[in-house]
Amino acid sequence: MYKLSQTRIMIIIGICLLGIFFSIPNLMPEKAASFPSWWQPVNLGLDLQGGSNLLLEVKIDDVLKEKMDSIEDGIRQTLRENKIRYQSLKAAPTNVQVKIENLNARNKAASLFRKLDKDYDVKEEADGLLVISYNEMALNELKSKIVDQSIEIVRRRIDELGTKEPVIQRQGSDRIVVQLPGLQNPEYVKTLLGKTAKLSFHLVDSRSSALDARRGMISNSSKLVKGSEGENYVLGRKAIVTGEHLVDAQASFQDQEPVVSFKFDTFGGKKFGEVTKNNIGERLAIVLDNEVISAPTIQSAILGGSGIISGSFTAKSANDLALLLRSGALPAPLEVLEERTVGAGLGADSIRAGAVACVIGLIAVVAFIIAAYGLFGIFTTVAVFTNLFLMLGILSFIGATLTLPGIAGIILTIGMAVDANVLIFERMREEVKAGRSPRDAADAGFTEAWTTIVDSNLTTLVAAIVLFWFGTGPVRGFAVTLAIGIATSMFTSVTVTRVIIATWLNKAKPTKLPIM
Predict the structure, then answer these.
(1) Which parts of the chain sit beneath pLDDT 50?
(2) What residues contact residue 399 under an 8 Å CB cut-off, 6+ apart?
(3) Closest Cα partner for 242 from 261, 228, 262?
């Protein structure tokens, strides 16, 4: 072990220097803003720097109702195309019901409905009533997809705000936890997250008026929608193009008024161009979250796949709308169930308490190892401090977020950092008592203890992986710091200590090891 190659020594020293280099910003966080983005201190979690915590509920029932309305339209069209007489076709919150008195016609309709979608479950009840709904597997898959989509859209919106290291994750089957470190006033975020931002374009039904709609005198292909200024519009029920085909949206100015410019993808641009070309002189309503924000008259065909949304916008509201459209529409409304704000002062107290605990733990470990192993204990102390720098350097480099449980992981790692050295030094003692020379005893200590060191650390690493895989939030933070600490402590305990002891043996050439 005392014949380490220069290349190996330089690699070990280089890794240690890199760890120290990337941990330096943590020693002067007040100057971090002037540092490059790749050389920043470790991010502090909500519990350490304060911020806001929101618990959101995804209103899945609203989406199911929309799905049932869509299924109702499909069933109505199928029945008409096949000339099947029916009564009382209506969409309920979780199913669609239709009454067909003729038995043969009812069986034929049930067969046609099943062919519409493999996920439909068609049941026949009393008095010729057919009930169409999603089967259980399809329903669970739909609910999971809605929540996953909501999480992704929430993430996009939050990221565009520039909030540093937000935590966005699922809780239960239909809830989302959003943690925003450093943000003390979440009202603006709540406003943005509260909008589904479902954009669609509909032709205005010029043949019907709002009064006709209120009297129920419009066709099934039209619907009544309120406008942002309080007026009412009768629109075609089917959108000519939706926000799903938007590829960009930006706030801009037209005639010195704030507007939102948008651009469609190829399919959306082609569809939009065809509709505007064939309906010159008609009005085109722009609907956002089931509210008409403007309904301009089509003056000419819009063939470039882009357009302008105008209305009573301010510069800020235009920017907000552009952000919402860029990030995409939420598949379901979100309701804020719980809101908590953690003050920066409480976070500072947590940091101080964590720092005190780290210092006490470090002093206790150093005192023990020096008292037990003398000079070799001092060598181990150097390795322990190197381990701390490596941990901080890796956490900073990967952009990890440090929380209170993460600090607990660091404190635990400080104690574990000397485990390997204790095994190595005890093995050396046994070899010296057996009559081996200092060099051979030291070599045997590192060689023979290696298997035991790997086994003991591997079991802890498996526990950390399990915690990370099945845990959430703070538990994951603890698992990350614990896993990194295991890796760095093994490196410093075995390689760094080995380099130090090998150098000492070659320089001092002792006749006995100072660990008896």
Answers:
(1) 1
(2) 40, 43, 165
(3) 262
